[in-house]
């Protein structure tokens, strides 16, 4: 295992979960206001974070720094994923009320996987990139889909991938 992969392995699972926690706060708060909120909200949050811990762990196990060509291809593919019906459906479900933190985590994973691919392809340990991805994920959970914004984001990601290919 390379030192890059080893460094990612030591911190990626908790970092992935921590990065995704702020975007779950509105759903956790909704859950806390429900009848069983005192017990339900922590259980919901734990299940949600478990999904992201598993994603981070899986990423750390399989991670190898990609070649520039592969990184560029991954980023372009991630940008194109932002335009798919799968992404739209996962995003819609990630914004709905759900009783299961696991189900919420899985829908949010489907909604955010393209952005996670960008992070992993470019620099999984970049704090500024983690913050940018977390900010976009939060905005996508809080704001209703809007074609002008969503297509612009997808195009921006594709252009970023093309810029990586050009370097």
Describe this structure in words.
- The chain has one domain (3-166).
- The two termini are 26 Å apart.
- The protein has helices at 3-32, 37-62, 68-81, 85-94, 101-122, 127-142, 147-166.
- The protein is globular.
- It has 167 residues and is an all-alpha fold.
- Helix 3 runs antiparallel to helix 5 and helix 3 (68-81) packs antiparallel against helix 7 (147-166).
Topology (elements, then pairings):
Blueprint: H1 3-32, H2 37-62, H3 68-81, H4 85-94, H5 101-122, H6 127-142, H7 147-166
Q: Can you give keywords for this protein?
A:
167 residues, mainly alpha, 7 helices, 0% strand
Alpha-carbon distance between the termini? 26 Å
Find the structural class using helix and strand composition: mainly alpha
Which shape, going by the Cα principal axes? globular
- If you compute it from the alpha carbons, what radius of gyration comes out, rounded to the nearest whole angstrom? 16 Å
Instruction: Tell how many strands the DSSP assignment holds.
Output: 0
Count of structural domains = 1
Content of β-strand = under 5%
Helix content: over 70%
Low-confidence stretches: none
Overall average residue pLDDT: 89
Supply the number of helical segments. Answer: 7
The H-and-E topology, N to C, reads as HHHHHHH
Oligomeric status: single chain
Largest sheet: none
Question: TL;DR of this structure?
Answer:
This protein is mostly helical.
